[in-house]
Amino acid sequence: MIKSTKYFSRCIGELPEGCRLCVKGYKTVLFITGICPRSCFYCPISEQKKNKDVIYANELPLTGEQDIESLIEEAESHDSKGAGITGGDPLSRVNRTIIFIRKLKERFGRAYHIHLYAPLENCTEERLKQLFDAGLDEIRFHPDIFENSLWDRIKLARKFSWKTGIEIPVIPEKEKETIKLIEYLKDSIDFLNLNELEYSDTNSSNMSEKGYKTKDDLSYAIKGSYLSGMRILKHIEKRIYKTRLNAHLCTAKLKDAVQLRNRMLLKAKNTRLPTDIISNDGILLRGCIYTKELSPRIRKIKEITKSAENMSQPLSEFKPFFKKNIFLDKKKRRLLVNAKKLIRELESGSLPEGYDYAIVEEYPTYDGFEVSVNFLN
Fold first, then answer.
1. Residues 26 and 108 reside in one and the same domain
2. 3-class SS at 238?
3. Residue 71 in contact with residue 57, Cβ under 8 Å?
4. Whether residue 300 sits in one domain with residue 258
5. What is d(CA 230, CA 251) in angstroms, rounded to the nearest whole number?
6. What is the CATH number of the domain that holds 213?
7. If you ran DSSP here, which 8-state letter would residue 150 be given?
8. Same domain, yes or no, for 258 and 291?
9. If pLDDT is split at 50, 70 and 90, which confidence band does 306 have?
10. What is the CA radius of gyration of the chain?
11. pTM score of the predicted model
């Protein structure tokens, strides 16, 4: 039976453990490398990662497999109960992947759930054994639905006592090809994840060339993908569910309105300053004070973060107004105060001239992505 979940998705059976933790915000996204043997037209990976041998824990760049402490700190910042290892292709850097799996298990214990996404080009029985021995709990394969020559490699995973699944995007009007894959492997997998296809900056030209469009002006989801996914679920319900195959149609709304939101809320609560106000979406509302030379009115954030300008003098100047409730943000070269207090002080006319004052909404992430900057003067 096809069920609606409280996460804006549809499923048959049960969600895999990796997904149950992910939707609650408890999964750390560990991006192992941007190197990949595939060149999927729908690949959404950003320019800063695609085809580059870089490592990220959520939004935090890591310096290498030795940078374990940074990974641990990032995981702890949102009460992580597991990690999803992705890329690129983690099997193209299998030794690095194994190091991180072992270190995470050593730090958080055997119950810390780790799943991994992998295309099939680098999949061998030896590599799968290495991953299993390191402690991997769940493996999710990403086969090419148009080319079946490597599909049998998925069956190698059944030699190990972990959960095995397939995770693929739903390409509109390609149900026949997707169902052929599912029928062939239904007895070799525990679950199937169908992701609503999404538009991104890096795949936009490919999507346009193939005639795909977003379903509306406010969504990144591709028109027709969800409907194709539902038709596939109905086929599974009618023809395959007797094999007890769990299937999940994961929507773009789930990723943004549930998964990301919950992780942001956890991180915001754990890392907030006493002056921060947290929105229902986990966005931080901050009062910000800038020197004119470092104001985002005239300089980009990247330029500001590279600046060596000393902020100790402005900090001393504003302490009488905000007492202990003022903080120096060394990374963005600004002073942080409570937004409501900043507005009150400005309205009273007591704050010094020569500075830019703003209310900023930003994510509680390493990159501090700014949703909005509203200047008050």
1. yes
2. helix
3. yes
4. no
5. 11
6. 3.20.20.70
7. T
8. no
9. low
10. 23
11. 0.94
- Number of structural domains found in the chain: 2
Q: How far apart are CA 280 and CA 298, in angstroms?
A: 31
Nearest to 154 by CA among 138, 165, 144: 165
3-class DSSP assignment, residue 122: coil
Residue 190 shares a structural domain with residue 314: no
- For residue 111, the enclosing domain spans 2-269
Residue 98: phi and psi, rounded to 5, are: -65, -40
Same domain, 178 and 127: yes
What is the token pair recorded at 79?
């009460």
Report the alpha-carbon distance of residue 3 to residue 289 in Å, rounded: 50
Mean pLDDT of the chain: 95
36 forms bridges with which residues in the sheet? Answer: none
CB 143 within 8 A of CB 165: no
Looking at the structure, tell me whether residues 193 and 163 fall in a common domain.
Answer: yes
Structure tokens at 295: 């104001």
Contact assessment for residue 232 and residue 170, using Cβ atoms and an 8 Å cutoff = yes
- Residue tagged 């937004």 (tokens): 339
Q: Who contacts 259 (Cβ-Cβ below 8 Å, separation ≥6)?
A: 22, 23, 25
**Listed residues 199, 234, 269: the one ending a domain:** 269
- pLDDT tens digits, 23-60: 999 999 999 999 999 999 999 999 999 999 999 999 99
Burial class (CB in 10 A: 0-12, 13-18, 19+), 292: exposed
What is the C-alpha to C-alpha distance for residues 30 and 46, in angstroms, rounded to an integer? 15
Residues 284 and 262 in one domain: no
